[in-house]
Amino acid sequence: MNAPVIRLEHRQHQTLTPRLQQAVRLLQLSSLDFAQEVNQAVGSNPFLEEDGDAHATAAATPEAAPVEPVPTWADVTPVTAPAADTPWDRESWGSAGGGSGRGSTGDGDLDLVEMVAADISLRQHLHSQINVMPLSQRDRTLAGTIIEALDDDGYLRLTLEELQGLVECSPPADDTEMNVALKLVQSLDPSGIGARDVRECLLLQLKDIQPAAEQELACRIVGEHLDRLATRDVNGLARALGASVAQVEAVCERIRHLDPRPGWRFGPSNTQFVTPDVIVRKVRGVWTATLNPDVIPKVRLNQVYAELFQRHRDSGHSELAAHLQEARWTVRNVEQRFATILHVAQAIVKRQRHFLEYGALAMKPLGLREIAEELGLHESTVSRVTNNKYMATPLGVFELKYFFSRALPTVSGGSCSATAIRGVIKDMIEAEDAMDPLSDAQIARQLARQGLSVARRTVTKYRQMMRLPSVEKRRKHV
Questions:
Q1: Which residues of 325-344 are buried (b: 16+ CB within 10 A; e: fewer)?
Q2: 247, 265, 283: which is the final residue of a domain?
Q3: Which CATH number belongs to the domain containing residue 445 in this structure?
Q4: Single pTM value for the model
Q5: Total domains in the fold of the chain
Q6: Mean pLDDT per 10-residue run, the chain (478 residues)?
Q7: Residues 141 and 50 in one domain
């Protein structure tokens, strides 16, 4: 029987120092997250401060100006609605439009930005319509209860029986009153509000379709054949409805322009603006990549505090010593992060200059290893740099990883990038005959005639990546 044995072995393994761990974590953050991280460090570390001189230098440098078509987070300014007693007379409005850009009121200066109306929620919009109608207090209460029960899509997910128990009125509301209140809410703007499912939402919007024959056909399609409408089975709808294919196609096209989520038109906008980390311009015939100064946190080490601490340092100030060390790491990591991003971006621009000149069809195959070997970095470092980092080019704003794609062989023995092939597929679909669109197999055969060996399933995958519909959904009928 073997007895357990204890042995000591010497092994070597690599470990990351705390500074490197912090650098790796900060490198993979997006610009917005990184700026928030640095701002938190400035607020909690007494040895860090904002570099005001850097802001002035960036504003005075012509090359540091942000690209106009690309909005930055600094452009997103929260606005508030004016108070109900805000004077809107001609005199106050005229003074607001003066050279100072402010209007004078009894309470002091008023910024023009404060006069911009705030976003109106769906419930506020509906209540404002109910309040101007000649309704009794009981009817207004019932309609208001239904409005408050609507979700963000504008749908009523609760049953009328459930809402009856929530209405505080005497005597209790009956089914007839609740149905009348629901019809009242469904008559409000926007059309389709207060529906209990998608079918009812679309039916509420069909009353605006003219002529009457098309409206009747649309109601039959939505009411009886919604599943076929979703799958774009035009031929099946034509057979089931006894109408021509062209007529059914025209009505279906009108139905597709309806809004299945009318509640989304109201409320605050959730649009997220992308701030590019790198800006690419053509300078004297050469494509050049520069850092966007708007994304670089202006932070520096407070030399006064650091020198005072060094003079009076003793063992009782271990916490301040840790803050000083962290401050130095933060400043170095900011410099290292953006230097790495710039070097990777310059290497990408150097290899993909034909893309900048001619578009997606000229994209070359590129792998992470090529950039890593040129810059002396690890592939994982390049991968972290290319995620959530964006480059502004004359062709648009692209994530850095967009410029990397695997090489696909061609018949001539060369290679072509997957991005270029997707561009070719998109051009083929845009130029196809709408009455006789190309199937994925036909696209694959046309690519083969051009020397690009691409399987049919690969064409399907690329088409789905570009969110292009299938051949049947692209087909038009006379």
A1: ebbebbbebbeebbebbbbb
A2: 265
A3: 1.10.10.60
A4: 0.60
A5: 3
A6: 73 65 77 82 82 51 37 35 36 38 48 59 90 89 90 89 81 86 91 90 86 87 86 85 86 87 77 83 92 86 79 70 81 87 93 89 89 90 89 92 84 80 89 87 89 88 89 76
A7: no
